[in-house]
């Protein structure tokens, strides 16, 4: 027998709640996230509301703040972590641990219009995913609190359940500013792929239409992620997800078709004297039997025996000028059929000129299995992604990762050989894994930037860490955040590629950076203890920060890439950092003398950069005389941009 629940059964019936539920069944269109739209109810019941503003718009509670949030400069920095990196000194790849909103802000100057392709797999808002609250306070402090899983009052950070009245609003407030900032990083010929499911597909499409422009929508892929037997929906077994594809400026974009599939290659079975240049070919009928009339495709063709195939009876696959070009270049073949009638065929080569190249067209239905083998889609399923994770870690440490074949499919479409790819919801780092493997396979030099929140894979229960159910094995293995899993996956993949391909010279590394507050002390005077406060500000650099920390913050502020070559030189006993072959010179030492300054001036003549900028620590000079003379010495050799921290 079921016991009475004193919390619920002792209460009377909530008549108002029941009536609202009845209204929702009768008139679902009158409900908004904030409650009942009574004007809409009146209109539904036949009462016309005069003067009500009506226009097509995409509005939600907090949109203005979300837009504003993207404009607020970050107060943070990215601190280098060479000890967690692979091939720190040479790699061009980045893994950044932190809140992607703040990281995207910090990357704006250094990577503005430098990214060719973005792929993201953001939270789907299923009620289980971690959702960033729309907190418009200091975002660095907010980030530090989020990663500790408590708010400023010690309260738990929760997910975004469907019972939350602002279910879609919270998700939109999360995604909107991030996509707005991401667009700035795309090149004009850049593209963005975004994975999503049914929960937020309509809202994502509207958001992208607004931020990228409807005219820059390219397509929507449907990916069959499983066999159709999943029971994650009460009414329909959902077996697919979507991937939206938008461009920065559509007219500048070139999408690369897939290489010919195995089935297509079987068709190209003939050779001629041009085989070395054009590859094999097959003969294609010039006669187009499609229904419809296009005047430019109707013209007479004279056969070898002088007979004429009349244009009014035939519709050809190309116009008369194109036919003439093909005939003059030995591409037209005349053959008689068994009835003695002439057929006109043309040679279709495997490798052609740009306008003639034949490859598989990019289809928007992404499947797997036998059909995909024919179409060369072969994008695999979520099960394949899980198998990949197990093969790397020997256990399942991440739920439902995307398979590398899916990401490689988009890399083939959206990139060439040496371009930069960004993923700011990198998760287990499937995107970076895919790039490393593709570079090995095709000899390209694609580079990546991965960004991942160090989201804990555990919860605090009775002051103890308890693994979330999907991360039990990972937690047992010693991982505590999703970012740690992603970094270690890359290390393992790199080791595997290196071991299996000992002669491979590609970039097998990544630099790790972590989001943190600025290295510079804020001016926050304590007048109750003024003497001690002023002593603290003799140096405006935080005590726990290294020269490397400051170095990379300066790079970000100057808009320089974090992977630029950095050379350390010793000049008059002081360490001097030379960045980008002399584009920037930084000396953060103490007790700098004129000998060090003169040595930096000599670098201008030695390296001959177009522009040289020099940065010192404000308190780093031996005395004020050295500080004053330093500026004049550097100006004499043409260094005008001299600054101090």
UniProtKB/TrEMBL annotation:
Gene Ontology BP, a term: methylation
SUPFAM superfamilies, sorted: S-adenosyl-L-methionine-dependent methyltransferases (SSF53335)
Coiled coil: none
Keyword hit for Signal: no
Keywords: Methyltransferase, S-adenosyl-L-methionine, Transferase
This protein's record includes keyword Manganese: no
Matches recorded under Gene3D superfamilies: Vaccinia Virus protein VP39
Domain (DNA methylase N-4/N-6) ranges: 115-461
Pfam families with a match to the protein in the record: N6_N4_Mtase (PF01555)
A GO MF label: DNA binding
Family to which this protein belongs: Belongs to the N(4)/N(6)-methyltransferase family.
Protein name: DNA methylase N-4
């Amino acid at each position: 027998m079921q016991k009475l629940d004193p919390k619920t059964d002792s209460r009377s019936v909530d008549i108002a709640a029941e009536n609202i539920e009845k209204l929702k069944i009768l008139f679902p269109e009158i409900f908004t996230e904030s409650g009942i739209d009574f004007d809409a109810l009146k209109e539904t019941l036949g009462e016309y509301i005069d003067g009500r503003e009506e226009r097509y718009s995409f509005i939600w509670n907090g949109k203005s703040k979300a837009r504003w949030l993207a404009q607020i400069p970050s107060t943070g920095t990215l601190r280098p972590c060479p000890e967690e990196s692979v091939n720190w000194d040479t790699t061009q790849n980045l893994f950044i641990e932190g809140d992607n909103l703040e990281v995207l802000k910090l990357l704006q100057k250094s990577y503005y219009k430098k990214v060719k392709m973005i792929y993201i797999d953001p939270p789907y808002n299923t009620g289980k995913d971690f959702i960033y609250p729309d907190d418009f306070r200091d975002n660095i402090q907010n980030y530090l609190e989020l990663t500790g899983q408590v708010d400023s009052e010690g309260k738990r950070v929760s997910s975004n359940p469907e019972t939350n009245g602002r279910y879609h609003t919270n998700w939109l407030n999360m995604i909107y500013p991030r996509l707005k900032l991401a667009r700035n990083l795309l090149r004009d010929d850049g593209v963005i792929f975004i994975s999503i499911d049914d929960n937020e597909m309509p809202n994502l499409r509207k958001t992208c239409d607004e931020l990228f422009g409807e005219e820059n929508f390219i397509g929507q892929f449907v990916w069959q992620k499983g066999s159709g037997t999943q029971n994650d929906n009460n009414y329909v077994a959902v077996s697919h997800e979507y991937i939206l594809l938008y461009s920065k400026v559509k007219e500048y974009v070139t999408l690369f078709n897939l290489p010919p599939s195995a089935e297509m290659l079987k068709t190209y079975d003939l050779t001629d004297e041009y085989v070395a240049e054009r590859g094999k070919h097959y003969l294609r009928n010039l006669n187009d039997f499609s229904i419809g009339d296009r005047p430019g495709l109707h013209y007479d063709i004279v056969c070898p025996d002088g007979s004429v195939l009349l244009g009014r009876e035939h519709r050809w696959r190309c116009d008369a000028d194109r036919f003439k070009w093909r005939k003059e270049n030995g591409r037209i073949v005349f053959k008689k059929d068994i009835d003695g009638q002439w057929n006109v065929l043309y040679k279709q080569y495997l490798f052609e000129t740009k306008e003639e190249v034949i490859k598989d067209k990019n289809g928007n239905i992404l499947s797997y299995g036998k059909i995909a083998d024919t179409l060369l889609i072969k994008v695999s399923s979520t099960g394949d992604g899980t198998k990949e994770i197990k093969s790397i870690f020997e256990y399942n440490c991440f739920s439902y990762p995307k398979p590398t074949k899916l990401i490689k499919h988009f890399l083939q479409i959206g990139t060439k050989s040496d371009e930069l790819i960004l993923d700011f919801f990198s998760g287990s780092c499937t995107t970076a894994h895919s790039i490393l493997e593709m570079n090995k396979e095709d000899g390209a030099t694609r580079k990546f930037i991965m960004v991942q929140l160090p989201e804990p894979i555990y919860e605090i229960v009775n002051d103890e860490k308890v693994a979330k159910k999907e991360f039990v094995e990972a937690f047992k293995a010693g991982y505590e955040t999703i970012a740690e899993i992603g970094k270690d996956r890359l290390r393992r993949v790199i080791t595997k590629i290196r071991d299996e391909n000992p002669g491979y010279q590609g970039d097998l590394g990544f630099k790790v950076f972590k989001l943190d507050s600025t290295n510079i002390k804020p001016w926050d005077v304590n007048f109750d203890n003024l003497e001690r406060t002023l002593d603290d500000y003799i140096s405006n650099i935080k005590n726990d920060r290294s020269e490397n920390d400051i170095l990379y913050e300066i790079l970000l502020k100057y808009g320089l890439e974090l992977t630029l070559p950095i050379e350390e030189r010793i000049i008059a006993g002081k360490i001097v950092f030379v960045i980008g072959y002399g584009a920037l010179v930084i000396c953060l030492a103490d007790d700098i003398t004129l000998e060090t300054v003169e040595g930096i001036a000599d670098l201008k003549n030695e390296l001959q950069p177009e522009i040289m900028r020099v940065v010192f620590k404000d308190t780093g000079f031996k005395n004020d005389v050295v500080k004053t003379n330093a500026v004049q010495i550097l100006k004499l050799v043409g260094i005008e941009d001299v600054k101090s921290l």
